[in-house]
Amino acid sequence: MNQQDDIQQLVNRFFEGDTTLAEEHRLYEYFRTHEVSEEWKPLRQMFLDMEVVSIPKTKATVKPLRHWHQSLMAAAAIFIGVIVVSIWFVHRQNTCVAYIYGQKVTDRAVVMHEVRNTMGIVTEGNPGVDHELKGLFE
Amino acid sequence: MDRRIILFLMFLFSVVGMQAQTGLAINPVFKGAVIPASRMVETSVRGRSLSQYHLSYYHSLRFEASKKELLTINSLFDQDRKQAIETYRIKKGSQTGKFIISLPPQGRTHRFLCLSFQNANVTLVYMEGSVGSLRELRKLLEN
Fold first, then answer.
1. Where is B17: in which H helix or E strand?
2. Structure confidence at residue B39 as a pLDDT band (50, 70, 90)
3. How far apart are CA B41 and CA A121, in angstroms?
4. Three-state secondary-structure class, residue B18
5. Chain A contact for B99, CB < 8 A?
6. How far is B92 from chain A, CA to nearest CA, in Å?
7. B125 in contact with A, Cβ within 8 Å
8. How close, in Å, is residue A61 to chain B by CA atoms?
9. How do beta strands B55-64 and B86-92 pair?
10. What are the domain boundaries of chain A?
């Protein structure tokens, strides 16, 4: 079967409404790229018009779907980002950790003991500390 | 669109990743750049545990320093002392000393830095919170 017979069959099936989308596109392409006989010239114009009409339809259905999909992805990414940052922020707001000569300690009692120890060093003193502070601020 | 999301997430992570004592000359000591972590005792407390002291963040280091290290730390501390709005100082000879400085507040957060040394034993403390003055801070720490 040569190509012209093949196309003739497709045209017949097209008018019977039996062609698939792929076959219809094959017809459009054939009439767009081939010279045809006088008998087929009205068909050629019809298929060229149908091809033009079919292009915006395809775009009109795909584009909003793509935009909707992108918006959903963006919203999901931002939502996950905000959740991760919030958890991290809340966790960071209540940290209690010590590194004793390189060893990590998270036992609150041990850490707070060390805090009181260093606070003691800060405030400790000789009797003069209290006196000097009083003199300084009063 | 994707680029905007990535930039937004990068911004979020950079904002929350900032350290409390960032911007201070003494910061390298807190980051372990002067004294290695294996030679010191470091505490970092934030939140509820400090509420009785009216502090929101407490970061301390305790270590033994060589003369050279002590000079470096003193030099860095002196740079921060230049911007202090209040200073408390005790010095007994060249071997023992204590400095507490109040740094310019960041919004409603007041910041304090303390350096104490007795021979080679050094204690460095950074504190921040709603405490308004050294006097108030001293009272809270002593109670």
1. none
2. very high
3. 14
4. coil
5. no
6. 11
7. yes
8. 21
9. unpaired
10. 3-90, 96-125
Chain B neighbors of A132, CB-CB under 8 A: 88, 90
d(CA A27, CA A31): 6
Neighbouring-strand partners of residue B57? B46, B128
Instruction: Specify the range with the lowest mean pLDDT, choosing from A91-100, A108-117, B3-12.
Output: B3-12
* Interface residues of chain A, partner chain B, Cβ below 8 Å: 70, 74, 77-78, 81-82, 85, 88-89, 92-102, 108, 111-112, 114-115, 117-119, 121-123, 125-126, 128-129, 132-133, 136-137
Residues forming beta bridges with residue B113, ordered by sequence position: B101, B126
Cα torsion through B9, B12, B13, B18, rounded to 10: 160
Q: What is the mean pLDDT of chain B?
A: 84
pLDDT in tens, A39-72: 888 888 888 888 888 765 555 555 666 778 888 8
Which among A35-39, B21-25, B49-53, B112-116 has the top mean pLDDT?
B112-116
Statement: residue B17 has pLDDT above 60: no
ipTM of the complex: 0.78
Phi, psi of A63 (to 5 degrees): -60, -50
